[in-house]
Amino acid sequence: MRIVVCIKQVIDPEVPPSEFRIDPQKKEAVQGRANLVISTFDECALEVALQVKDKVPETTVTALTFGPKSAEEALRKALAMRADEAVRVDTDRTGRMDPAGVAQVLASTIQKIGGADVVLFGREGADFDSAQVGQMTAEALEMPLITLATEMEAVDKGIRARRHGDDGWSVVEAPTPVALTITNAPVNVPRIPKVKDVMQAHRKPITTMTLDELGIDPAILSEAAPVEMEELFIPEVNNQVTIIEGETPEEKAEKLAQAILALKVL
Amino acid sequence: MQLTAEQTALLETVRSFAQREIKPIVHTYEAEDRYPSEIVEKMQELGLFGLNIAPEYGGAGVDTVTYALVFEELSAVWMSLAGILGTHGIMAYVLQRFGTEEQKRRLLPRMASGELRGGLGLTEPDAGSDVQNLKTTAVRQGDRYVLNGQKMFITNSRYGSGLLVLARTNPLADKPSHGMSAFIVEHDEQTPGYIVRRPIHKLGYKGVETCELSFEDLQVPQENLVGGEEGHGFAQVMSGLEVGRINVAARAVGVARAAFEEAVRYAQQRQTFGQPIAQHQAIQLLLADMYTQLSAARHLYIDAAEKKDRGQRADLEAGMAKLFASEMCGKVTLDAMRIHGGYGYTTDFNVERYYRDAPLMIIGEGTNEIQRTVIARQLLQRYRV
């Protein structure tokens, strides 16, 4: 089984809020002192793929990213976790790219590298949280899509996945080729790579492709994209604390109810 | 120092491991002074015991600089674990550098996997700083050596499975150091003549066992004489201690860094006289000195490690790094406690642990008084008139 996991490099979402900055002109976040990491849910997707490989060793896992040269570090991390191959489609763009355009790039790349039995995505990027690339890529590849899966196993002629729903969880099966978006769960906490694998990952090749080679016009990522981002800003949050005074719990509750009603939030 | 992509990735791995696996349990293990078997197993899985062992023997083969950076990273969460790794690393270094090819092929892969976890059997009740005075003897009998003597303050001696032991093989040698040899002693609970007298209770450095040992007619196969030739043990172990001192300096920087980071955070949260204490100049002066000194100490150990990696003699630099970093650690951890005030004196906060751990680096791996004499001796040679 060949599994392709689409990963994105993002600014570490764990960066302290006090250090988070944006560049309003470029409409993108400023890296500052933060690390660049694999987007949270994408790393869970990688873990899901590697767990299949743990059970079925002939499985191959390819990590695929669309990003600048720095994104190779995300691929190196994937290789250190024991992905077999890494592919990067080069761009010098940073910041938001249109999900439909990204989906087209990823679908074309997957076709160019020989297709896949299973394509995995994180359920959404840890930067803009659009949650569209997985769905749009599956559509472009004409693959059925299972969303919000937490684990997957290989079965006869396909896969079985467990997915989260509003009312619990369900187990679904699908023939391959198939695409899945992965959400986080205790069962797919990303493994910590072994130190030897970290060192070896830096000696493995990364296949690089250009949009030219894929025959894709870069304009679809922004200028000619159907959605344009007009403004990017950090919302101002005003925290105000009002202490409700009162002699008895009943009195405090009454005053609290009045205060909530006065705010007209109910 | 600009880290390479490999170093960055490796440190990130160690940091993730420390945050996920060590940080949540350190308080409990420290309080109970319990040997962290589960963590050691996970360190084994991660491959930390093979860090400084060459890939052809199953290790990761990192250089001295990277190795020391890992020690800093681990120590910033729990210094005791760096201790478990430290003497194992010295044994691996000595074996890799001075062992015969047969010894390397036989022992290093097991050390890299952590199946054979080693330590250093050097100090004795009457021979610490004065190593040349050591009394343990190794007498050749047929195809083996018979060891007798006592060792003191030996890390990894109970829960580990191997020791690099320095013993006297020729009491009549022209110089005492020429009559010493180093042996790899493999042991378990059943090994005749390998007796763990008692675990030693300490101020800090909890969780790791530090024991008093006796060897009573302990038999060691002749093929475990490091390098296969008698009389080189002293020089072999001293070379290993150079790496050990660099790593002790890195451990001191790790502990001091943790203390500083907690202090600088606390200073911005704790209010007195209507403002965060970080706004008081008295606290600012402490913070500035703490960070300046720990940065200087880091430069010193990296400089020593780089020299070692270039194949140059580095005893002066390793000694200076160990001396400066450990004294710095003592001061910075005390300053972190001052900033925390009364809370810093309680076991509710980590700074009291950092403060208790700091003296180990001042005393261990050659006291700082010995470091000063080593440094001075080198300087007098270098500046001879």
Explain this structure.
The complex is a heterodimer of chains A (266) and B (385). With 266 residues, chain A is α/β, with parallel strands linked by helices. Chain A has helices at residues 40-55, 72-80, 99-112, 133-140, 195-201, 211-214, 249-263; strands spanning 2-6, 9-11, 21-23, 28-30, 36-38, 60-67, 85-90, 118-122, 145-155, 158-165, 168-175, 178-182, 207-209. Chain A has one domain (2-223): Rossmann fold (3-Layer(aba) Sandwich), CATH 3.40.50.620. Chain A contains 7 helices and 13 strands. In chain A, the strands form 3 sheets. A 9-stranded mixed β-sheet of chain A has the order 11-10-9-12-8-1-6-7-13, with helices on both faces. Chain A is globular and about 70 Å long. Chain B is built from 10 helices and 9 strands. Chain B has helices spanning 5-22, 26-32, 37-46, 64-98, 101-113, 233-269, 281-309, 315-340, 351-363, 368-382, and strands at 120-121, 137-141, 144-155, 162-168, 180-186, 194-199, 210-221, 271-272, 275-276. The longest helix of chain B is centred in the middle third of the chain and has 37 residues, at 233-269. In chain B, α1 (5-22) packs across α4 (64-98), α4 (64-98) packs parallel to α7 (281-309) and α8 (315-340) packs antiparallel against α9. In chain B, β2 (137-141) and β3 (144-155) form a beta hairpin. Helices cover 53% and strands 14% of the residues of chain B. Chain B is α+β, with helices and mostly antiparallel strands and 385 residues long.
The strand count of chain B comes to: 9
Q: Helical percent range of chain B? A: 40-55%
CATH topology of chain A: Rossmann fold
Beta strand count of chain A: 13
Shape of chain A: globular
Terminal-residue CA separation of chain B: 35 Å
At a glance:
The complex is a heterodimer of chains A (266) and B (385). By secondary structure, chain A is an alpha/beta fold.
Keywords:
heterodimer; A: 266 residues; Rossmann fold; 9-stranded mixed sheet; two-stranded antiparallel ribbon; 27% strand; B: 385 residues; Butyryl-CoA Dehydrogenase, subunit A, domain 2; Butyryl-CoA Dehydrogenase, subunit A, domain 3; 3 domains; 4-stranded antiparallel sheet; 10 helices
